[in-house]
Amino acid sequence: MPKSKRDKKISLTKTDRKGLVLKQRIMEDVKKCVDEYRHIFLISVQNTRNTKLLELRAEWKDSKLFFGKLRIIALGLGKSKETEIAEGIHKLANAMKNHSMNGQCGLLFTNRPKKQVIEWAEEYEELEYARSGFVTPETVELPEGPLPQFQHSMEPQLRQLGMPTSLQKGVITLIKPFKVCQMGDTLTPEQAQILKLLDKPLAVFKLILLGVYTKKHGFKKLTVTDDTNENEDEDKEEMDVENNDT
């Protein structure tokens, strides 16, 4: 009887016992998910927020999302033909490693139809407050005059953030026009805080599908606009797996 790829032992070195147990648990979870779910999507996350990830996990409670610990996840999948736990899955592990260098990414294990997942990802986005280091997509300027949305007690805080304010008859007032940020600026902590106080979200929390793995077809890089037109019956898809080797 041929030996299953899942039975391969993987060595974890340079770690204490507590860390070793955690890593082994993650790898076992990954192996279990490979068996349990039909599709594994490689996803990139723009403007990650922990609260949004929690909401996603609740919305996709019939599926499994993995973020973080990518090196351990890749090790669990197998990074070569010799160590992979399923046919061709090392290509997913290597693609995940490559994309993680350019930003946060993760894996979505699901049994939902591929077309449904792609259409959902295309439509899903949530506005979020930008953080320090974010490159602004627009210019935000405030005219001279009162700022009635703020309580008078906030005037020292706004002035400390760099806004030219004064308290006039109990109302915080800009004594001259103020440019919060210019399109293309990299936000400072002060600018990010001002935008949040102004209730001006500029960032978009969004998931980008980078690729998908199935046991039948292996790993395929995704171009979302192309794949939304594919037949939902995946048995009819023709995937050139070798051309997507990383």
Summarize this, please?
With 246 residues, the protein is an alpha+beta fold.
Biggest sheet features: 6 strands, antiparallel
SS strand fraction: 15-25%
Mean pLDDT: 83
What is the CATH class designation of the largest domain? Alpha Beta
Structural commentary:
This protein is an alpha+beta fold and 246 residues long. The chain folds into 2 domains: 23-128 and 204-221, Alpha-Beta Plaits; 134-200, Molybdopterin biosynthesis moea protein, domain 2. Helices cover 32% and strands 22% of the residues. The chain has 8 helices and 11 strands. The strands form 3 sheets. Strands 1, 2, 3, 4, 10 and 11 form a 6-stranded antiparallel β-sheet that branches. A 3-stranded antiparallel β-sheet has the order 6-8-7. A hairpin with a 2-residue loop joins β7 and β8. The radius of gyration is 24 Å and the shape is elongated. Mean pLDDT is 83; it is low at 224-246.
Q: What are the defining features of this structure?
A:
246 residues, alpha+beta, Alpha-Beta Plaits, Molybdopterin biosynthesis moea protein, domain 2, 2 domains, 3-stranded antiparallel beta sheet, 8 helices, 32% helix, 22% strand, elongated, disordered C terminus, RNA binding
